[in-house]
């Protein structure tokens, strides 16, 4: 898989990242490697599943799209003849889902035919899902690397380390969907050069020394450590490939680079070293692909038919998996309709935003969509999906703003109602805290809550002083007005009537005395005390009679 022992050499530069970290980016995917990987020995436990490579490919694409990762798939074209043997060994070592095919001797054409069939079905699924795929004029990772080096994609997804030899800047390795947060290994050419002192030319030199897909054996007797120290000792300004080419010259003067005499001696035992065709394969440019030249359409009906026939999925299950892809494709295409990207907007209409949602720590909306015209299998008349807030806002800013404004209006009204309710509750509490005179029915004698009276007495005194000051100011400022009669507003206390017999025997004098006490200018507490004293006298008179 690329250059022998290159991944262990690059291990110090390895970084890990979650698949979610790739959100909003575009990646070039080595489709041929995925097909080999998805038919590996590890999947033999799923032999009963139909078309396992299509099932796994669908869910990998689904995982990328729902995270707003835009994949561009690259399949290899006709590989060099020397690569045919490598492909056959890969399929045999990985073990196909139909291992009986490998129990008998096979020609290269049979192996290639099997691989081409898997590749054809995979490309058909990719096309029906509205994604781009291109066929390279050679190795798939070569075109992936070219797209990456030209800035058309942010990274390459492959386990072939020779993507760096083809010019890739960033490679994601060990792609899988294990766990809720799939983790990938990330390598970048920037880190490789800064931390290990290896540039593209030096890695091509390692391929010649250690071995690669085009020369599996490399230079006999030259191991990883010796080859690495040698290429690291060569300064960047010196072209290491030219140096290797000069070894054939009998007049060449050996330098002091680490292990050069030993490696040169072993390399010259190979007639073609350094193999120019390998250097040219890794070095030549590939600029014959225009990713904006092909229109891509997502067709629900055709995709549903394909999945139903190939994977035998039920209609409801298909809708649950396809519709979120369909709506996301619609939103991203809608947002990019004015850009240079020539994608076709899927024909689906948004009805309304239902509510806010949080998914994987991201702000989202639950959105209701109208039913597709060609969907005759789904029972409901609408679809409900969860969409990223930023994605929906980019496609339909007016709808999002309207929804947010309505929610703010409802929230403001609720807050106002809550404020009024709290104010009413507070007023009720103030009323309930007024001093009350309670009659003890056992002795028909009023009982006063003096704790409340103390507070109310202080408030009454303050209010009386304020009223007196206000009235004096009014007299000074308005000399023409008549003298204002001062009124002392006092709280009236209503006593419960003792009983009907007591009222009949009450004399006029006590009542008159009570009125005079209530209307007197005496302090509040003293008036209450006199009223109690008068009431006690009445009770005693009644008892003696």
Proportion of beta-strand residues:
5-15%
CATH level-four homologous superfamily name of the largest domain: 5'-nuclease
How are the strands of the largest sheet arranged?
A: 1-7-6-5-2-3-4
For this structure, the quaternary state is single chain
Q: What would you call the structural class?
A: alpha/beta
The dominant shape is: elongated
Strand segment count: 12
Mean pLDDT: 76
Count of DSSP H/I helices? 20
Biggest sheet details: 7 strands, mixed
Write down the Rg.
45 Å
The amount of helix comes to 40-55%
Mind telling me the CATH class of the largest domain? Alpha Beta
Distance between the terminal alpha carbons, to the nearest Å? 121 Å
Total separate domains: 4
Low-confidence stretches: 95-105, 437-455, 475-512
Q: What is the CATH architecture annotation of the largest domain? A: 3-Layer(aba) Sandwich
CATH fold call of the largest domain: Rossmann fold
What does this structure look like?
The chain is an alpha/beta fold and 545 residues long. The chain folds into four domains: 8-196, Rossmann fold; 199-286, no CATH class; 313-395, no CATH class; 437-544, no CATH class. Helix content is 48%, strand content 12%. It has 20 helices and twelve strands. The protein has helices at residues 6-10, 31-38, 52-65, 81-94, 108-128, 140-149, 189-196, 200-210, 224-232, 240-246, 260-267, 276-283, 300-310, 315-335, 389-395, 397-432, 450-477, 500-505, 508-518, 524-544; strands spanning 15-18, 26-30, 70-75, 132-135, 155-157, 170-173, 183-188, 350-359, 362-370, 382-388, 437-440, 445-448. A seven-stranded mixed beta sheet has the order 1-7-6-5-2-3-4, sandwiched between helices. It has a three-stranded antiparallel beta sheet with strand order 8-9-10. It has a two-stranded antiparallel ribbon with strand order 11-12. Helix 19 (508-518) runs antiparallel to helix 20. The longest helix has 36 residues, at 397-432. This is Chromo domain-containing protein. Its cofactor is Mg(2+). Pfam families: Chromo_2, XPG_I, XPG_N. Belongs to the XPG/RAD2 endonuclease family. GEN subfamily.
